[in-house]
Design a protein that fits this description.
The protein is of the alpha/beta class. It is 36% helix and 20% strand. Helix 1 packs parallel to helix 7 (153-165). The longest helix is centred in the first third of the chain and has 15 residues, at 8-22.
Length: 326
């Protein structure tokens, strides 16, 4: 079929619909995912079409949601659970890191837990406390979990398909402020590997590496820099654990400079690991230190201040200028 232009949220809905149609063992669980269709309407219409036994409205109990999903996975189901907002995941953190992530190793490979945990994350929507956080590094640090985040509708569709098909647990971070961004989605295409980074824009002078909500910011920064004669390469990392360091290395070897951008605080964030690995692997190619751009090491602020907290075009371009000045 021909590609269709759709929003990122619609692409997730279409992907969930495809999974439900393709495999009777796929279940969707979460708070308000059924009759309401989710607070962002991402699961709209699915309970109506597939029934309350397949799309299940749960109590407000994240630990119970994930714990139930683990039990269902042990019985052969493939649950897809939704955590309503990023800051609500922490009651389920124990279940995720001590049970979901460890069961495969604990059973010496005999037990698989094909559970997907969908988490809308990040800021930019003017929400209240605990509705705009970026906790991806906490999960990437946990062995046994795959952690991914799409930046466009096509990846939102295909990466979720691949996550649901994985026998390993996947934490699927959805950039909520990009829910309405539209792009082409070809549902008949053959997707690339789930954990492969992609070159979103080629360039020669410096590499910008980002994922999820910050890819668009980096694309805008590259376009602005081009007007001043600077050629920036933009990498969409797509996967946070594992990270496709080979693609990052090839890019840095071409450009000699790297700026890593994410919404989460810079302190001990994903960019820290990338900066360390690139320094080890590309030391003799680097013409400047690896720089990081991200949120501040503070609680997420009230919505009136989030524009000051979130890394935007100016902060990315400032880091680009500092890197190019070496």
């Amino acid at each position: 079929m021909a590609a269709e232009k759709m929003s990122l949220s619609k692409a997730i809905n279409a992907s969930l619909r495809t999974a439900l149609e393709s495999d009777p063992k796929v279940l969707i669980m979460g708070e308000d995912v059924g009759k309401l269709g989710g607070v962002f309407r991402v699961t709209d219409g699915l309970q109506k079409d597939f029934g309350e036994d397949r799309v299940i409205d749960t109590p407000l109990a994240e630990s119970g949601i994930v714990g139930t999903a683990i039990g269902l996975a042990l019985r052969g189901y493939r649950p897809v659970v939704e955590i309503q907002f990023d800051g609500f995941v922490f009651p389920a953190y124990d279940q995720i890191v001590t049970q979901l992530a460890k069961m495969h190793a604990r059973s010496l490979g005999k037990v698989k837990l094909p559970v997907v945990v969908r988490i809308p994350y990040g800021g930019g929507i003017g929400a209240v406390e605990h509705h705009s956080e970026s906790p991806e590094a906490l999960f990437a640090h946990v062995a046994g979990l795959k952690v991914v985040s799409p930046a466009n509708a096509s990846d939102a569709y295909w990466m979720l398909q691949q996550a649901i098909g994985s026998d390993d647990p996947v934490i699927y971070f959805e950039p909520k402020r990009r829910y309405h961004d539209k792009s082409e989605v070809d549902t008949s295409a053959i997707p690339g590997p789930l954990h492969a980074a992609r070159v979103a824009r080629p360039g020669a002078d410096l590499t910008l590496a980002a994922y999820g909500p910050m890819v668009k910011v980096c694309m805008d920064a590259a376009a602005a820099a081009a007007e001043e004669g600077k050629s920036l390469e933009v990498l969409d990392l797509r996967s946070i654990s594992p990270i496709d360091f080979d693609t990052v290395q090839r890019s840095v070897e071409r450009t000699g400079r790297l700026v890593v951008v994410h919404e989460a605080p810079v302190f001990l964030g994903t960019g820290s690991e990338i900066a360390a690995r690139v320094t080890e692997r590309c030391f003799y190619h680097l013409q400047a230190p690896v720089l990081r751009v991200g949120g501040f090491h503070s609680p997420y602020p009230p919505s009136r201040l989030e524009d000051e907290y979130l890394p935007g075009l100016d902060r990315v371009l400032d880091a680009v200028d500092r890197a190019l000045a070496y």
